Amino acid sequence: MGKDLAERFPAARAVFDSIDDVLDVPLSRVMFEGPEAELTATHNAQPAILAHSAAVFAVVSGKVEDNVATAAGHSLGEYSAYVTAAALDAPEAAKLVRRRGELMQKAGEERPGTMAAVLGLATKEVEAACQEASQQASLAVAANINTPDQTVISGDPDAVARAGEACKKRGAKRVIPLKVSGAFHSPLMAPAKNHLQLALERAAFRDPVFPVVANATAEAVKDAGRARRLLSDQLTAAVRWVECMQRAAQLGGAGARFVEIGPGAVLAGLLKRIVPEANVVSLGTADEVTKFMEAA
């Protein structure tokens, strides 16, 4: 993960080195060499994804930053968005998401939870199924509203199972259990929220140079204080990705180009289902970055 970028672009290598310097593990070695079990551990996976995104942006920033209308990121990707907006330096953001991952892992151990993806059912129906399945001591919520007909539910395992069955009865095409270590973006993450807020308050956070669309509210954030609060809220709130992309498209205006920065092309696929006319390019590999730089 990211090795090709480090080998071909000095700016990317510098980002990986700077993040290694502030963490207590050689993260780039884990990213480049594994083992996979170590890389996929929450406290490593989150800063690794951020490092990859920040490394790509360091290479392409000169080609895009003068024309950016807004940025957004899905879940931990919101921290990457603040890096692109110069509100956070990459090493500072990596420390935050490392802490975030540790806190989420601990919250998941204290109150085990799970998540499941619901495909082919409108969000309102999923929300109604979650409400129907929730009880006083066991709850399920819509946690990631990824497209109009793809929603991830999160919560206590029994409630998520009941909600999944209720979704099937309401016409869902599939309900897919996810391999996660907790009920992310749900009230079960509440024990982590105050600790994360403290870390955010201590971080060197600046006002973004362009607005960042917040997961929790789909509003365009323009100041550091508001950014800190909404990143804390994000732990227990739904990722309102459909509204985020609609807001980003509005801010970008007609003919705007979306650039996905980081590993994979999942967000580009989601975007095309939210804003079908969107012009989008994904930059994750060294080859993709090279092609973009040559064409820009």
What features would you highlight for this structure?
296 residues, alpha/beta, four-stranded antiparallel beta sheet, 54% helix, globular
3D structure, described in words:
It contains 14 helices and nine strands. The protein is globular. It has helices at 3-8, 10-22, 27-33, 36-39, 42-64, 77-84, 90-110, 123-133, 157-169, 190-202, 224-233, 241-252, 266-274, 286-295, and strands at 71-72, 114-119, 140-147, 150-155, 174-178, 212-213, 220-221, 257-261, 279-283. By secondary structure, the protein is α/β, with parallel strands linked by helices.
H and E string? HHHHHEHHEHEEHEHEEHHEHEH
Number of strands: 9
Arithmetic mean pLDDT: 95
Strand order, biggest sheet? 3-4-2-5
What is the CA–CA distance across the termini? 25 Å
Low-confidence stretches: none
Number of helices: 14
Report the sheet with the most strands, covering strand number, pairing sense and barrel closure: 4 strands, antiparallel
SSE arrangement:
Elements: H1 3-8, H2 10-22, H3 27-33, H4 36-39, H5 42-64, E1 71-72, H6 77-84, H7 90-110, E2 114-119, H8 123-133, E3 140-147, E4 150-155, H9 157-169, E5 174-178, H10 190-202, E6 212-213, E7 220-221, H11 224-233, H12 241-252, E8 257-261, H13 266-274, E9 279-283, H14 286-295
Parallel strand pairs: 1-6, 8-9
Antiparallel strand pairs: 2-4, 2-5, 3-4, 6-7
